[in-house]
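Changelog-adjacent note: as of this version, every example in the card shows the full chain rather than a window. The one below runs 291 residues end to end.
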Amino acid sequence: MTKKLLVTGASGFLGWHVARHAQADWRVVGTWHGHPAGLLPKSEAMQLDLTHRDAIWQALKAVNPDAVFHLAAASNPAHCEANMEKTRLLNVDATTWLVEMCAERNIKLLFTSSSQVYDGVEAPFSESPNPSPQNEYGRQKLAAEQAIRQLTPSAIIVRVAVMYGKAGNGTNNFLLQWLDTWRNGGAVTAFHDEIRSFLSGQSAVAGLFMLLEKAAEGIFNLGGATAVSRYDFAKMASKVFLLPTAGIIGKSQKEVETAAFRPADLTLDLHKIRDIGFKPASLEGGLEGYL
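Full-length structure tokens:
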């Protein structure tokens, strides 16, 4: 029997991957707000403004899903820092409304949080229920997590690492920006002291569907098999993509002024999600999969 999955933020990077890799027994209905160009071609989608509570209810009523992947978010830390009230409406308030409605209708909810809820000081990070985010985006994600845990403890909360890979029209990620720069003869700047558990979009989706199919509950970290610096990631990418002359400028976080705090080391402890069967791709394997 085909089940229905409602995906918010379907025109974003991860939403595109969900629609592209959805399992056969799930009928996926995606929602988009301002950027329909990022949708997978011929995918089933509807427009939804999550900042209007009644609109969320109408969407749930129309689709009547068995589960919801809540992926939509204002995810740029600098934007969140500069527009706290506006981004909190989407990242926290809208999430709370959606959670309340899913709980009322007994709909399984999976929410994508972020590794930015951790402070970056004492890595690797396990799934602490009370981390210490150091920027506004992380604080908003943690506030949304707290609302979810209070309203529907059976929900799945996934703290996702920095992702990379293919993307739909209108969506982007740092690797695509780097490749574009290299193709045009430019050089990219990458921090040698900023460590991340980089994760391919394809591997991320595999993890989300595994958690859903196994009826998981609670908080899970989701990242790649090996954490490396952005500088080392750039070197690996240039090697895999056969770009020996790719320009890479290594810098320290301290050398660059940023609009939002950037945690130094967000290495994720993946024991919990590994224990239910998830096998994170290696960095080289994820990059080769992109090819």
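Structural remarks: The chain has a mean pLDDT of 95.
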